[in-house]
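Structure, all two chains, one model.
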Amino acid sequence: MLIKKPADIRPSEITPPEWYARRRDFLKSAAVLGAVALLPPTLRGDLAQAADDDLKPTPYKDVTSYNNFYEFGPTKTAPAENAGGLRTSPWSVTVEGHCEKPGQYALEDFLAPHAPEERIYRLRCVEAWSMVVPWLGIPLGRILPRFQPTASAKYVELITLLDPAQMPGQRTRLLDWPYVEGLRMDEAMHPLTLLATGLYGKELPNQNGAPLRLVAPWKYGFKSVKSIVKIRFTEERPRTTWASENPDEYGFYANVNPEVDHPRWSQKRERRVGEFFRRDTLPFNGYAEQVASLYAGMDLRKEF
Amino acid sequence: MTARPSRFPSYGKFLLFCASLLPLAWLCWLVWQDRLGANPVETLSHRTGDWSLRFLLLTLAVTPLRRLTGWNGLQKFRRMLGLFAFFYVCLHFGVYLVFDQFFDLSAIFEDIAKRPYITVGFAGFLLLIPLAATSTNGMIKRLGRNWQRLHRLVYLIGVLGVAHYWWLVKADLSEPLLYGGVLAALLGYRLWWWRSHSATVKRSTR
């Protein structure tokens, strides 16, 4: 079970964040744009390739100021503005459902046996933007067995804190609170699946889902439920928030798939935060080698 | 052309012209200051889209306001507001063309054909072109009554613009609702006005 970091995401591949400074200069010189537009298509393609430096972490400032966390408001900047007051300590996680050791655990105890490790993952939002985030976290597959899920545990449901006093977005009816996400058991146990407790070597900022959030890098970002207070082993597929909100647009699996468009926009390409032109979206967000076998034989157009 | 009631409108137009460029100036300032946020292209796209809709609604507000307040001088500003709506739509489309699609025509056609929000947005943009092109005094004269018929397209364009925004949003419909509400009020006022004035035939208003 204890598989080390996959070979394609070594920390050594990090490029210094200073590289990013150049993108700002690029925008400032609007003239460059006009010039680029006049280039022959082949040369333009080369430029796009040159920008293809795949696992440079997105700057900390962007990772922590451009968030979807509707509990703190519907805009990208609202979470950073409104999440400061969230009390993340003390925090407890309730484990329930089909397992031998249910109970309410203080976060420290919940995490105690494991040392967080760094994982640099691509994060692809269903809205066709993406980032690269150096997470700190613990593979969910190492945590879950401690609670001894039974044979009936087919799925894991993960639930965000429900507290409208602390989460102003929950005072509106934007979504059916609390936010619920879920994974099939084999997805939850997959070595890529992480319960993140930090990023950039620091504690997780509130707007990024402190103190505990899911990261399943081959799935659209909305699967990565934040500020988790409850983990439930279930036999039935959980009723997840976005999939029940709008079943035609958001599926349970939500695997990143450039071949299956969102009904309202294309998923073929994405804008990496910090880049100006879109890049191609990869099947399973570039993690096909690791996870495609989980879905062997499934029609990914139907089970999107 | 009728005689000018005062010199005020020309000052007014100049002021309006400058004021209408303020959103663009503000955006340029944000670009320069690197304050467009983590996704600057998205910000540019959204802001230019917002201002397109706002100028469109302002344009549509002129006639109802003129009738309600009796301030006929307002009419002088309508053309400029409409042209600024077109101006911001062009910027909005430009951001899409350059940054979202990078002149990839096949991707653009696919978007227009397959994504309803882009279909209606693009339709609104196309329909604005003849309106902008026939906004000169010469064209107004040449087209005569047909000018007014043609320019009634702006009601449809308003609906397309709001629908474009509406269908883009994931969950928080409050802003599209706001724009939709204003549009409904402005178009509703016209309906009411036409009904209540259909008996007394008036053909000279524009």
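Residues 148 and 206 of chain B are 7 Å apart (CA to CA).
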